[in-house]
Amino acid sequence: xxxxxxxxxxxxxxxxxxxxxxxxxxxxxxxxxxxxxxxxxxxxxxxxxxxxxxxxxxxxxxxxxxxxxxxxxxxxxxxxxxxxxxxxxxxxxxxxxxxxxxxxxxxxxxxxxxxxxxxxxxxxxxxxxxxxxxxxxxxxxxxxxxxxxxxxxxxxxxxxxxxxxxxxxxxxxxxxxxxxxxxxxxxxxxxxxxxxxxxxxxxxxxxxxxxxxxxxxxxxxxxxxxxxxxxxxxxxxxxxxxxxxxxxxxxxxxxxxxxxxxxxxxxxxxxxxxxxxxxxxxxxxxxxxxxxxxx
Length: 295
What we know:
Layout: H1 12-29, H2 33-39, H3 44-51, H4 59-69, H5 73-78, H6 90-122, H7 129-136, H8 140-146, H9 150-173, H10 179-190, H11 195-213, H12 218-241, H13 250-269, H14 277-285
C-alpha cells in the first residue's frame, strides 16, 4: 500500500528510478529546478533532495510533478507511457528564460503590493502566508520563494511604501517654487488623508514596533528612516542657502519636525479624537517656527 509519505513500495532501485524520471520531467518542463518547485508549490530544497534520491516523493508531490510536466503518473511510477518532450534548443530556451523573467518580475510586484496592503490593513501578526497566496491567486510555495520569512515580507512592505513616498515627493517637487514650497508640499504628502496614506503609515509604525522586538529588522527600518530624514534635512539646508533660518541648527530642526510628524500620524491612525488631519497640518506648518515660516 502506498502512503502519503512515500511513493511506491518496491526496492530502493525502484525509488531511484522514479526520482530519475521525475528529474527528467523537471528538466524538460522548466528552465530551472527552483522555478519548477515554485510552479507546483513545493519547497525547492525538498524537491532537490527528492530528485537526488535522499527523500521520497509523496503521492501528492508526484501528482503535481506529473501535471506540471504534462506526463502521466503511470510514466513516473513505472516508466511506461509517453515520456516528457526533449528540452528546447539553446536559442529557444534563452527566449523562454527572458519571457519567464519578465513574468516573474510582474508576479513579484503583484505579491509585494498585496503583501504590503494586507500587513497595513490586518496587522503583521494577523497575516498568514496563506492569506497572501489567496490574495495573489498563487501557492504558498510561490510566496515563500519571494519572502522566505515573515520578517522578509515586512521589510519588503516597508521598502515598498518608502519608495512610494519618495516617488510622490519627487513628483510634488518638480514644479515647486523653492525649498519653502517643497516643505509645504512635503507636509501635505505626510498627512493621513487617504487609504493609501493610512496603509503607508500603518506599515511604518508596525516596522518600528517589530524593530524594537527583533534586532534583525532594525537595519532595514533604520535605512528607510534615514532616507526620509535626509530629504527633510536637505530641504532645511536649501532654505539656509537662500538666507532663511540662518541661526537654526538644521539637525535639531529636522529631528523636531520628523518626531512631530511621527507622533501626530500615530494619533490620527489610533483614532485619537483630539487629533484630526487638519489639526495635524496646522501643527506641522508651525514645526519650523520661529526659524522658518511656512505660512
